[in-house]
Amino acid sequence: MSTVSQTDTNVTVELQNQELLRTIIISGLSTLPTCVFLFINGIMLFTMRSKPVFRETCRYVLLYNLLFSDTAQLAQTQVIFLVRAFQVQLPFPVCAILILLVNLTGRITPLTLVVMPLERYIAVCYPLRHATIVTLRNTGAVIIVIWAVSSLNNVTRLLVFFEVLSNNVENLGVINDCSNVGIILGSKSEQYDTIYTCCLFVSAGVAVIFSYVGVIVAARSVSTDKSLARKACNTLLLNVIQLILSLSANIYNPLIRALSRTVARTVFLWVRDVFYVCFIILPRCLTSLIYGLRDQTIRPVLIYYLCCRMKTSVV
Questions:
Q1: Phi, psi of 38 (to 5 degrees)
Q2: Which of 18, 72, 91, 132 is 20 to 30 Å from 45 at the Cα level?
């Protein structure tokens, strides 16, 4: 009996060591690029507020909103990931608030991608009316609407949360896995999330496709600025890529749930964390690179601030 007990103890210790090693490796692999891109995104956000051309041009204002939401989403998801990886127990209300914030910023990107292609469509197809339609005031109003629509999903979650809070007060202590709040809130919240997400991405997809087709048709017109049309097409293709990447973040949870029922726990934990880096971290890191390096107006200013920051750190 003592031999069997010793063997079980050794197996348990080995599993704990493997779990600790996995946690350290994945936490490092996810935290390092997160910190790097949070720094780059911070410089990018500062860059886009440093010059009047960025503050007074509507497409840059929309880009700032997109980058801000991606940066906030990146920071929030990494915090929740580390809390889950190191099995930090949080009170249910605290965990619910963290999830609500992640849910809020996570909807901003596709909603902004509904508006940005339409702005490019107006610039190419209606250049004479662009200055009167796409104004700073209208852009500010659109951004307010984006945040308001994104908050609708949270309003529903809050209503469900208060319902759970009133009916099951004794079960709302600490929670081990903060990512499972959606499951705890029940099937109503999950079903609403699914419907909301589908409607959101269908709307964004329709807006991008409509704008792209409109720009392609306008590009064949003799009176259209060919250079502007070509740049607009490239921008719309980037919007499609961003939309697909945003969609990949929304298929993460259903994919993980399916894998949890088909693979062993050890394999599942590794796959779950690798998928987190691929589907959650990397898509949020690409906005600053795509626009910061591609846009000829942003690129020199961004490189200037990055270089100055590097020189300062060396000195």
A1: -65, -40
A2: 132
Per-residue pLDDT of 303-314, as tens digits, reads 888 776 554 443
Radius of gyration of the chain (CA): 23
Half-sphere exposure of 142 (CA within 13 A, CB side): 22
- Which has the closest alpha carbon to 65: 148, 136, 146, 120? 146
**3-class state of residue 158 by DSSP:** helix
pLDDT tens-digit series, residues 203-262 = 877 887 888 787 777 767 655 566 767 777 777 777 777 777 777 777 777 777 777 778
Q: Where are the beta strands (DSSP E) in 104-257?
A: 174-175
Q: How far apart are CA 244 and CA 242, in angstroms?
A: 5
Distances, alpha carbon 292 to alpha carbons 148, 207, 306, in Å: 28, 24, 11
Q: What is the pTM of this model?
A: 0.82
Q: Is 100 exposed, middle or buried (0-12, 13-18, 19+ CB in 10 A)?
A: middle
What pLDDT shows up at residue 121? 83
Please report, to the nearest 10 degrees, the dihedral formed by the alpha carbons of residues 193, 197, 200, 203 taken in order.
-130
